[in-house]
Write a structure and sequence with these properties.
Chain lengths: ~300, ~450
């Protein structure tokens, strides 16, 4: 603010000179050009962001179904149906628990793996390549693959377990939730690992040397220096994984379709099922409710990200 | 502002506009599929991939080469993903799209799709009445029936034969599992108690001499089609979705008994523990791998189980029995094709439907790997076709033709699949299902 007040008189004084007038015109022209050049982005945002959101909100207030080609206004009745539907709350509760669980496990495992791979050891390159393979598999394919691998009749995993004398069905009603968590961890830990591994490459070796000179243990170095130093990366990685886990759909839908009952129904599966039934109004209302639930977190996250970038 | 600046700004604006136009070109809708070229009208059908679409492609090729040339019509099929074809259709329909001239539909979708379909005039006497009626909405025929789907019990003839002679063991196991002594019976005489007792007989947990690990494979995944299978139990236990007054009836004794049939099979371990996630392919795998002795399955599953290459353990050993119960009734639904009433060439589309509405076209469809809802087109004397014809003639039931039938199947799967596998209480699951049925049926 003080900088502005001190520069204003200078600008005012300079405005009188011909050179300043030219500069002002040039600035004005550049300002206009910025807007003109911004048109594609503005159009892109309007078409692909603002219009769908606006249309979704309008649809959520209508009786908009396949059965009703000419939608009529119904006020907030779709919202009432969503908020009084126990399946919605079951889906929300499962999604939150699932998100917290998989994100926490993947952050911890990814960080530990990054620490291991931060030091040279035989076969490091090969293992690094092998470790990042799971993120290259499409989640839906992952679901199909594990549906076959875990099949009690033709699957390799149950056959191996039985050969080892372990009689357990991983797809049974009592084990399916831990199984889904494990599958997500198997697929996405490599993602958190990659980000942490990249961040560790940027940590100066002198820091560890200095810590060693001070006789700090490895654990002390990790907890007191490394983790605070990597806090922005940890935050961004956690945020990205949480967002992804919150909208989990493919693998779970292929493996369980949200069942048994609604035990493994995520919010995405919940909305997808309504949409498949052709009730666009209700699906839109569910989406808006989910957006409202997530929305308060966004400013906090943006602030953390921009603060991190600034610092 | 001088001329140079103006020219520069004009150039920049033009360049920006051109870039925007180029970018937006990608957002433009695809050209309508049914454009007319050289006097020939191109018509397009949307279908999901599978034997039906493959068979329809062959019928279309024959039509294009023959009758189509006279009609100046060329038909083609677009095959989308197996799971999302109906979702794509919903999007097209809701925007009253003219991209496709025909939509794939089915009995359980017909009420939803009807507002977007042109009513048809068919030679109704040629079809199985159940299949034809399942595609009527407010008395109008909305689509032409193709592949009918019913349920059978597929069983291992070699194993059941031995069970029928092992009366003492069977009685002991039925007493242990059901609390009553039952005699072994042939599958075509089974009630649901007989089904459970026979499943226990073929489960190693109860019979260490059983050649299979489990007696049966339950399709208990939270899936629309599994609701249809469960309806077989409900109807054969004397229940229905609605009572005689038209009110939701899923809290009836019959409904409770039907849930308990599934629950008993799962919780007593007569099926694989993974059958809480089982559907059609898992059931095929359970039978063909020799892990299960019998299962309730869709009629389409027979050919694979009887194919020596695909199923060497079961080929030639699979018997077909009707759904257990007193009346042995099966759910039936039909795959179908309807004409998009918002298409640009409805009259031409009707001509292709008229072609399909003939015995010869349906025979060609069957020969190409499809199934027909026309008795005279089902000339193959195989066991599965004979069983299908017999069931379609007098062994089916139709769920109430409610506009939101598909939503109801979805709700039943969601509300009951937990109770099927022992989660929560049967009563609360049925109460939830009944409330959802009331809301979705408006009754």
């Amino acid at each position: 603010m003080s900088a502005l007040t001190t520069t204003r008189p200078e600008i005012g004084a300079a405005a009188k000179s011909p050179r300043s007038t030219r500069r002002q015109r040039s600035l004005h022209a550049r300002g206009s050009a910025r807007w003109v050049l911004g048109i594609p982005l503005i159009l892109f945002l309007a078409l692909l962001v603002a219009y769908p959101i606006g249309n979704g909100v309008i649809s959520s207030l209508q009786n908009h179904t396949l059965l009703n080609p000419n939608p009529t206004w119904t006020g907030f009745s779709n919202y009432v149906r969503i908020l009084t539907d126990s399946n919605f709350w079951d889906a929300l509760s499962f999604t939150v628990v699932y998100t917290v669980l998989v994100t926490s496990i993947e952050l911890v495992l990814g960080f530990l793996l990054a620490l291991v791979f931060d030091r040279p050891f035989p076969g490091r390159r090969f293992l690094l390549s092998a470790l990042i393979l799971p993120i290259m598999i499409a989640p839906a394919l992952m679901g199909i693959m594990f549906r076959l691998l875990l099949s009690q009749n033709i699957g390799v995993i149950p056959a191996l377990l039985q050969a080892l004398g372990i009689n357990i069905s991983l797809l049974s009603a009592s084990t399916v939730i831990p199984l889904l968590v494990v599958l997500d961890v198997v697929q996405w830990t490599s993602f958190t690992f990659l980000l942490f591994h990249a961040a560790l490459q940027g940590v100066p070796a002198e820091l560890e040397e200095a810590a060693q000179l001070d006789r700090a243990s490895r654990a002390r170095f990790v907890f007191s220096i490394l983790i605070p130093l990597l806090a922005p990366t940890i935050f961004i990685t956690g945020f990205l994984r949480a967002i992804d886990a919150f909208r989990a759909f493919d693998t779970i839908n292929v493996l369980t379709a949200g069942g048994p009952g609604t035990t493994t129904t995520t919010l995405s599966i919940y909305v997808y099922k309504i949409l498949s039934s052709g009730d666009f109004g209700l699906a839109s209302a569910a989406s808006v409710v989910i957006a409202i639930i997530v929305l308060p977190i966004i400013p906090f996250v943006i602030r953390r990200i921009t603060d991190g970038a600034t610092s | 502002m001088n001329r140079t600046q103006l020219t520069r700004r004009a150039c920049m604006t033009l360049a920006t506009a051109a870039a925007a136009a180029l970018a937006l070109a990608g957002c433009n809708a695809a050209a309508p599929s049914n454009t007319t070229a050289g006097g020939v009208t191109n018509l397009k059908l949307i279908m999901n991939p599978g034997p039906e679409a493959t068979a329809m492609s062959k019928v279309m090729a024959a039509y294009n080469a023959g009758q189509g040339a006279t009609d100046k019509i060329h038909v083609a099929v677009d095959q989308l993903s197996r799971t999302d074809t109906y979702a794509k259709e919903a999007t097209l329909m809701s925007t009253k799209s003219a991209d496709y001239d025909f939509y794939q539909t089915a009995s359980y979708y017909i009420a939803q799709h009807a507002p977007y379909l042109e009513p048809l005039q068919l030679n109704s006497s040629q079809y199985f009445p159940g299949a034809l009626n399942s595609l009527k909405v407010n008395g109008e025929q909305e689509a032409i029936p193709l592949d009918p789907s019913v349920n059978f019990v597929f069983y291992r003839k070699d194993l059941i034969g031995k069970m029928l002679t092992d009366k003492a063991k069977f009685e002991q196991i039925s007493q242990q599992v059901l609390g009553k002594k039952l005699e072994p019976k042939s599958p075509d005489q089974w009630t649901w108690d007989d089904y459970i007792a026979s499943a226990a007989y073929f489960t190693r947990k109860y019979n260490s001499a059983s050649p299979t690990q489990y007696g049966t494979e339950l399709q208990a995944k939270n899936l629309v089609y599994n609701s249809m299978l469960w309806d077989d139990v409900l109807w054969n236990e004397g229940g229905s979705w609605l009572n005689s007054s038209g009110k939701p009836d899923l809290t009836s004794a019959a409904a409770k008994s039907a849930v308990n049939v599934y629950r008993t099979i799962y919780t007593k371990g007569l099926t694989s523990p993974a059958s809480d996630q089982a559907e059609y392919p898992e059931t095929e795998a359970a039978l063909s791998s020799g892990n299960a002795a019998f299962a309730l399955q869709w009629n389409a599953g027979y050919d694979q189980l009887n194919d020596p290459k695909q199923s060497p353990k079961t080929a030639g050993k699979i018997g077909i029995a009707p759904v257990p119960g007193v009346q042995h009734l099966s759910h039936v639904h039909t795959l179908a094709i309807g004409v998009n009433k918002y298409g640009q060439h409805v009259a031409q589309a009707q001509k292709f439907i008229a072609y399909l509405d003939t015995v010869n076209a349906m025979k060609a469809y069957v020969a190409a790997g499809g199934l027909a809802s026309m008795p005279s087109a089902l000339t193959d004397g195989s066991a599965s076709i004979s069983a299908l014809k017999s069931t379609l003639a007098n062994g089916t039931f139709n769920e109430p033709a409610l506009p939101k039938a598909f939503d109801i199947y979805t709700a039943l799967a969601s509300d009951l699949s937990g109770a099927w596998v022992g989660q929560g209480s049967v009563d609360s699951a049925l109460q939830k299902a009944n409330a959802d049925l009331a809301q979705l049926s408006g009754k």
